[in-house]
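dumping this here before i forget
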Amino acid sequence: MHSTYVRNFLNTATMVIVSFMLIGVTFGLVSRNVFLTETRDQVQTSSREVSRAAAAYARENDLGSLELRMSITTVAASTEEHIFIVAPDGKVVSCSDAELGCHHLGTELDRELFDSLPQTGNDTYFDDLHGFYPNSHYTIVTPLRSAGGTLLGYLFVSRDTRAALSVWQTIVPLFFMISLVVLMLALAFGLASSRYLTRPLQQLANAARQFGRGDLTARVDIHRDDEIGELADAFNSMADSLEKSETRRREFIANVSHELKTPMTTISGFADGILDGTIPPESEKRYLQTISSETKRLARLVRSMLELSRLQAGDREALLNQSFDIAEVLRLTLINFADKIDQRRLEVDFQVPEDSVIVRGNADAITQVVYNLFDNAIKFSREGTELGISLWKDNAKAYVSVRNQGSTIPEAEIPLLFDRFHKSDRSRSQDRDGVGLGLYIVKTILNNHGEDIAVTSRQGVTDFVFTLTLKQESKKQTGEKQYG
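structure:
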């Protein structure tokens, strides 16, 4: 992670530096061209103004007059340019230098340069005019002609490029120095920002590696109000969920092992006792009955676990596309428990509408819910008490209540009733044949249907109430409880 971070930072820094260099070179070239363009424009302006005055003197064949020389000297002083006039024979006849004895006067231009001078219009030169100047000048040459078109001479207006570029040479280093400072500050800020951004990501990566090694207690301590903070919160939430899932998985394996171990130990012990003669022949039938009972209990456990796998893979939309009469399901299921109800001498308070109550869901699955709740209620009812079964509608929901009278369930134990293999103390004494999956199956089925179930237990009365979504509402008594 660290090497990747350093490599990414170096790559970014290299790109920034290269970009800075390209921008700097571009700025230098463009700004130099701007200064030279400004010089050219100024020289062209001066050339046009001087050429008009020089042309007037030239028509009088007096290019070397003192008045013309004073005029060009004044213009040259105000524009910081050098102006001189060359006769048709190539000799300098007038110059803007202030000294009367100017060394340029009488100087003859280089023949090659003179032969290349324009005959019409004007031409520009960016050099030392073949040794005329000691360094490079920007020069505009304009031919001077009489009214008849005769060539009278040439006007040269020049400016030293060193002067033109002196400001540019001052600005460019200053620009590069300021840019370098800004670049260093930007890189420092980028380094700090990169560390600020990558440090939490490194924590997340380390925590993920711990998860990969099986340490589900790993968490990241990141408190930020940005996307990385949201990612850290999501990671911790995921970690909490995975840790809880792993805890439940271990508990499930432990519970399954316990539930399987007890009957298998019983079956193995009694079978070995019969085979080796430890159990007398007259007692074999009783112990064989115990073996049969424990075998059936194992079979119920396996069936319940397979049923759970099937339910958890169910498709909610497919379930809700079906419908059935819940009132009829309650009646038929109650009939199946007639013998058990009689054995415990229970009074049944059956408050269910005579009309059909059509709800959405799978009839077989909801029948399993009703069966498990009835079985649970009858099993834990005191003999001679009342078993209450009610069905009513409220808005778009149907409510089913299964109520029995027995021991009060402790408040702290109610949230655990729907856990896998959970058995309360009263269950361990009264439900020796159960496997602890009945209510968990109830909760799973209702969750698959998108429905809820609630439990209350006060003063010995325990009431399970679950919801179902109505397929269609009754045209009368909508929103009220309806009893048969």
